[in-house]
Structures are given as structure tokens and as C-alpha cells.
Automatic annotation (TrEMBL):
Subunit structure: Component of the IFT complex B, at least composed of IFT20, IFT22, IFT25, IFT27, IFT46, IFT52, TRAF3IP1/IFT54, IFT57, IFT74, IFT80, IFT81, and IFT88. Interacts with IFT20, IFT22, IFT25, IFT27, IFT52, TRAF3IP1, IFT74, IFT80 and IFT81. Interacts with IFT172. Interacts with IFT57. Interacts with IFT46. Interacts with IFT70B. Interacts with C2CD3. Interacts with ENTR1 (via N-terminus). Interacts with LRRC56. Interacts with DZIP1. Interacts with CCDC38. Interacts with CCDC146. Interacts with CFAP53.
Organism: Lepidothrix coronata (blue-crowned manakin)
GO CC terms: centriole; centrosome; ciliary basal body; ciliary base; ciliary tip; cytosol; intraciliary transport particle B; motile cilium
This protein's name: Intraflagellar transport protein 88 homolog
Top-level taxon of the source organism: Eukaryota
Alphabetized InterPro entries for the sequence: TPR-like_helical_dom_sf, TPR_rpt
Keyword line: Cell projection, Cilium, Cilium biogenesis/degradation, Cytoplasm, Cytoskeleton, Flagellum, Repeat, TPR repeat
Residue spans of biased composition, Basic and acidic residues class: 136-145
Region (Disordered): 53-91, 120-145
Family matches, as PANTHER family: INTRAFLAGELLAR TRANSPORT PROTEIN 88 HOMOLOG
PROSITE patterns noted in UniProt: TPR
Function: Positively regulates primary cilium biogenesis. Also involved in autophagy since it is required for trafficking of ATG16L and the expansion of the autophagic compartment.
TPR repeats by residue range: 243-276, 282-315, 495-528, 529-562, 563-596, 597-630, 631-664
Biological processes per GO annotation: inner ear receptor cell stereocilium organization; intraciliary transport; kidney development; non-motile cilium assembly; regulation of cilium assembly
Amino acid sequence: MMPFNTVYRKMMQNVHLAPENDEDDLYSGYNDYNPMFDTEDLENDVAFQQAARTSYGRRPPVTAKIPGSASSRPLATGFGPKTTLPSSMGRPMTGGIQDGVSRPMTAVQAAGYTKAAMRGSSFDPLGQARGPAPPLEKKNSDSPEEKLRQLEKKVNELVEESCVANSCGDLKLALEKAKEAGRQERELLRQREQITPPENINLDLTYSVLLNLASQYAANEMYAEALTTYQVIVKNKMFTSGGILKVNMGNIYLKQRNYSKAIKFYRMALDQITSAHKEMRMKIMENIGVAFIKTGQYVDAISSFEDIMSISPNLKAGFNLILCYFAIGNGEQMKKAFKKLIAVPLEVDFDDKYISLNDDLHTNLLLEAIKNDSISQMERERKSMAEEYIMTAAKLIAPVIETSFAVGYDWCVDAVKASHYVELANDLEINKATTYLRQQNFNQALETLKMFEKKDSRVKSAAATNLSFLYYLGNELAQATNYADLAVNSDRYNPAALTNKGNTVFANGDYEKAAEFYKEALRNDSLCTEALYNLGLAYKKLNRIDEALDFLLKLHAILPNSAQVLYQIASIYEIMEDPNQAIEWLLQLISVVPTDPHVLSKLGKLYDNEGDKSQAFHYYYESYRYFPSNIEVIEWLGAYYIDTQFCEKAIEYFERAALILPTQVKWQLMVASCYRRSVPGQGATVLN
């Protein structure tokens, strides 16, 4: 063991006590600095300048080391002498002492600002003194690639123009643009094949050009050309989604009434569409069912529609399913199909959410604004379509699903009451009464309608209106008036009830009051055609001809082919002593009802008053041909033949008049006169 004194001496050799008489040694090392932060001579540092000149100041590769750059240099600390640190970038040391020469330390310099610039040049950090940048290289428009790009752009523009023309209704222009796009696209393919490999061909452009061309052929009813173009797409294996276009081909065959081929292509398209596109598959299956109905294959159609109703039920498929079961006479299946129809979800809120619950003006204005927006209109259209399908189906199956029409209709009413179409049950009951009217079973109609006297106001008003009309037809004005009052009191905003009330007042001769009811009906429904027509008649009775003509002309704009409206307008022009206009409107009328003898005789009379005997004879003769018992027409024709000295012809008409009215001696005398004119000396014999 080493002696303690020896050990102590060795330990004390490494201990350095601070001198007590020199206080400055306490702060030694504070003025030293790390040479890594020495930026004094960076502009002369080759490695640093090389790194600054590279893109975004990236470091040069490590392999570009300068020999000796990894050598150490002093590092100044407050606890010992300076030591050297190796450069992390493999460049020579830029700070500290190098080659025996130390360089001063500077502050961090701004980008673009150097000592050299300060010594001899102006401050120019953006390098503007170098002048403008060289101009961009001009695109070579003569290069093959640029020509191909321009041609491809032109093809796309032609396809877009074709689609826009089709949407605007100009089908001919759309087809011309589609054909031109096809020609340009073929030219593009020819040029591209010369300079690029085949795999660089733009298949999407070719597909869009062919599809647009086929669509435009189909829109212009050039079905053969459309099918040929679709075949080009379908048979090309490079078009991966071409198989779905067999749906379009099936649609064309359906329009051509080639139902077997339509079914074939629909089924081929169905095989190409995955189950992810459920809606598309349902539409194709619906088309298949319709095609089977067209060919009378109701069992196959039922299979398609049953699949649709089990996967994705809709109103049209449900109604078609009922039609198929009706065609094969299966009453029980009709009931099941009817229940499926009324269970189809409409995704429409049946509650009236636009009724204001307070008197807030702002809320009421907001509700009025959104009451007729596009979404509300869509909801009303869907509800109206559903009600139409259900009402039609009920009327169709009611007589055949039970022992009698009434029992069948009651079953339909009960089924509807159990669904969310509860309000429709009352309409079905009223429709039941209307059906009794068509069957001329007035007693049953009255009993059915009287059941609604204790229902809610809307249904009561509808039933009372029909009851009033029934009594009006039976000329029981007292009862008609009572039920008309009940209808109006139950629902003052029902235009049909107001019109019916006006009719009862009109029948009692109070035309002024009747006109007020008709105008009130029009305020509730400006397109109530019955109120417009009756208002015109009321003003005609009041001799307010101009106002009557205005309302009838407005009604004519709504119902341009209404024979009654055309006749009333012609009659008003006749009252206004404008025979030319009256004749013009009557000519329009006979284009609608060419065999009406009364209208033809009216035209003959107007032409006769105008002195045009030839036209008058033509229309009188046509009237006589359709109705040879009109005494006025017979008399005019007989007189016409006498005036034209064809007495033998006149005898035929006067003899017919004598057969119609044998008690009037006038016609026998006319026959005798004709004989006397045609054969002198024979008249007295005939008279005896």
C-alpha cells in the first residue's frame, strides 16, 4: 500500500488554486467566442460561397471535402484553452485562427449586402442593375405536338357545342356538330399515330365523341345510325365502360317496338352493372317489365315488378304490378299489390308545415316565401302523382276484387285509411259516388254523398257541391240551393262550391249576383275554367258584351279547342254585328267539330246574309247531310233550287218536309208549286 503522504501529493498536483491577489482571473474566458460564429471572412470562404450559389442554399456533397478541412481548431471556453471543432460540412474553418492569421468577427449580414458592394457599388439586393430578364421562349406553333394539342382542343369544343345545341332544342345543329367532331377526331388519330406510339391515344376523347354522335343520332330519330355507332363503342374492348350503353340500345329498340331485342339488350346491360348501382338496375328492370307488358307476357312482367317492389319500391312499378295482376285476373294478388302501392315511401312530410301558429308578420312573410319554392312544388307534385296512381288503381280493381263494385270500393277505402294517405280515403268515397253517377245510379250517389254531411269542412264542402249539382241536374233548384249554401259555408275558399252556388243563382235569373260568385271563385283559383265560362255567359245575359268577350277570350287561351267557347265567341261577334269575325270563329269551330249540323247551318245563314249564296248552299247542304230533319235547312235548300230554276230538286226537299210535318199543308202546296213550275198544266191535278 502506498503511503498516505505520497497519495496526497499526487492529488494536489492536479489542483490549481486561484491566486488571491489577482481578481481579474475570476472573469477570464468571457471575451473568447466560438469560431463557428465567426462571420468576418465568409466572403473569402470558398466552401460557403459554393453552398450559397447552389439552389436554395443546399449544401454541396460531402465528397467535395477540401484536404485538411476536418482538422481541429481551438474552441474558446471560460474553463480552458481554445480547442478546434471540425466543420460539419467538410469545408475549411472560416473562424478562429487559420494559417496563423486570425480574422475579425462581424455581425450577421443582410441578404444581398456585402462589403464589396459597400466599397464600390450601390445597394442592389434584387439585382436590378443586371437589366430586364430575357424574354420567354416562344412556343413553336409549327411543332407536331402543338398541332395535335390544338386539334384535340377543337374536337372538345365541337362536342361541347353539340351538347349545348341539343339542350337548346336545335337537334339538327347538334348532329352536325357531332359529325364534325367525329371527322376531326379521326384526323387527330391519324396524325397522332404517325408521331406517337399507339398507347398514347386519348381513348376518353374517342369515347366521348362516339357517345355524343350516337346520342345525337337517336335524338334525331336516326335509329339505325345510332345503333351502328353504339355497336362501335360496345364491341371495342378498349372502352371498359362501353357495356352499359346497351341500355341506350335497348331504349332505341323499345321505341322501334322491337320488344324482344329491347329485353335482350336490357338484360345484357343488367349483367354489366354491379349491385352498387342499385337505382340504375331498378330502372333497367322496370324497362324490362314494361317491354314484357307490351308483348303480353304478364307473368314475366310480374316477376320484374315484384323484384323491384321487394328491393326498391316505387309508385310506377307498384301501379304496373297492379295492371299485370288485373290483366291475368288475379284478385287476391291485386289486393296485395294495392297494399304495396300505398306503402311506398314518398319521403314527403304529410303535415302542413306552412301554417303560421302566431301573428308574427316576419314569420308569415317567410312562410309565404317558402310555400311555393322548388322543394315545396316538388313535394306537391309527388303527392299529387301518388294520389293519382292510388285513385286510378282503386277505380280499376274495385269492381273485380269483390262480389260487387261497392264492396270492392269499400275494401280499397279501408286499406287507404290504414296507410298514411288517410285524407285520400274521403276522396275515394266521393269518387265512389261519382262512379254511381256514371252508372246512372243516382240514389246510391245521393246516399253516398249524404254520409259526408258530418265530416270535416273540406270533405263536407266537396260532397255538398256534388249533391247540389245532382239536384241542379234534376231541376230541383230548392235542394240544389240548400246544398250549395252548405258547400260554401263549409269551405269559402272552394272554387267549385262558389261556382256551383253561382249556377243556382244564375238559374233563378239573378245574373248580377251569379257574376259575383263566379268572380269570387276566380279570386281563389284564377284558372277555374267553369267560373270563367259561366261569368262570360252571365255578362252576355246582362248585355255587357265587351266584358263577356274578354273573359271568353281568356278562357280560349286556356282551352283553345273547346267547342263551347268557340261557339260563344262567334255568337258574341254576331251580336256585335261583326259577321266576318263570327264566320272566322265558326270556321275554327268546324275544324274541331266538323259534323255538327247546327254549326254548319249557322255558317250557311251568315254567308246567306252576306250574299254569298254558293258558300251558304255548301254549308246548308252539309248540315242537311248530317241532320236531314232541320225544317229551316230544308226550306232554305228548297227555296235555293227554286231560285236557281231547278224545281225538280226542290220537290225532294219539300216532300221530306211534308213527311216531317204532315199536318202542315204548306209543304204540299210547295210541292205543287214546284210541279207547276216544272210541268205547266199539272199543278191543278196535284192539288186536287
